[in-house]
Amino acid sequence: MTSTIQEPREGVKLIMKNFVFINKDTKIENKFYERLKRNNGSKTVAKLLDFSSKQAAIEANRLINEHTNLSNVLNENYFERSKIILTNIISFKGFWSSAFNESDTTVEPFYDEYGKEIGTVNMMNQKYPFPYSNMYEMNSMVLEMPYGDDQKYCMLILLPHPSVTVQEVYGSFQNVSFRDIFARLKSDEEEFDLTEVDVKIPRFKIDTNVVINEALNSMGVHDIFEPGLANFKRMTKENIYISSVIHKAHIEVTESGTVASASSTSIFEDRILSPKFIANKPFIFLIMEKPTATVLFSGIYSKPIIF
C-alpha cells in the first residue's frame, strides 16, 4: 500500500495502521526494536505488554481504538502462549458522491442465481448517471459508485448475468484486470455519455472472522507456520513461528455511504433507454482506490438479511 492512499479526502476517511504487541519477557533484537521506535505512532504502533495478564488484551484494544476507532479487535485468548502479536488495520468510511434517500428504501425480495427467493432486504434506490458497463467477458454488469467530492474512491459492483454464479464471475479475474474494468467504464462513458441509471442495491452489513492459514498455504506460504522452519531471527533469536493468521472484516453499506458490509432477472437494456441495475441476487462488491486500481475491501453479498 502506498502512502498516497492514506491522504485525507473530502467525504472519505481511510486509516491504515500496523500494531506490534510484544510480550515483555520476549527478547527482541535491538535493530528491530529501534526500527519500531522510529516508526512508532506514524504507520506502526508498538507496545510491550505482560501477556500473562488479562490487562494485555484490554490495553491492546484501547490502543487500537485510540488510533482507529475500532473496538474489541483482539480477543483475550490471542495472548495465551504468544510471544508477539502483529495486527494490521484498514478502516474505511466513505460517503457516496450521490447519496440514497432513505424514504426511497423499501423491503424487497432477494433471490439466488436461479430465481429462487431466499430472503428479503432493505433495498436502496436512486436514479443517477453512474458509470456502468455490460462486460460480456466477465458475464456481468459492472456499476461504479463513487465516494466523496473528488471521487478518488469508489465501490464497484459486479452483477452476474442470468444463471451465472458469482464464483464464475470471480474466475474471470484471471483474464480481466481492474484497470481493464475502469478502462471499459471510461470508454463506454466517452462513447455513450453518462446515462441516468435506475440503481437498486441492498442496505447491508457483513462481519467476518476467519483463520486464513489454509488460504496462505495454497498461495505457497508454508515455512512461517512450521516451528522448525520459521525464521524470524531479525525480530528475535527465540524460536518463534506463526500459529495462526486471523482476518477480521466489517463492512456497512447504507444510504449515506460505506463503513470498511418477483424476478431475479437483471435487465440489460439498450443505452438509449433508461437502464436498470437491480442487485436483487448475489453480487460481488469491491471498494477501490481508482488511480492505482488498489482493492481496499472486497466481498460477496449472497445471504440476505434485513439491516
TrEMBL record:
Ranges for domain Serpin: 1-304
Keyword Hydrolase: no
Protein species of origin: Danaus chrysippus
PANTHER family (alphabetical): GH21475P-RELATED, SERINE PROTEASE INHIBITOR, SERPIN
Name of the protein: (African queen) hypothetical protein
Source lineage: Eukaryota, Metazoa, Ecdysozoa, Arthropoda, Hexapoda
Cross-referenced Pfam families: Serpin
UniProt family annotation: Belongs to the serpin family.
Keywords for the protein's UniProt record, in alphabetical order: Protease inhibitor, Serine protease inhibitor
Alphabetized InterPro entries for the sequence: Serpin_CS, Serpin_dom, Serpin_fam, Serpin_sf, Serpin_sf_1, Serpin_sf_2
Superkingdom field: Eukaryota
One GO location term (cellular component): extracellular space
GO molecular function, one term: serine-type endopeptidase inhibitor activity
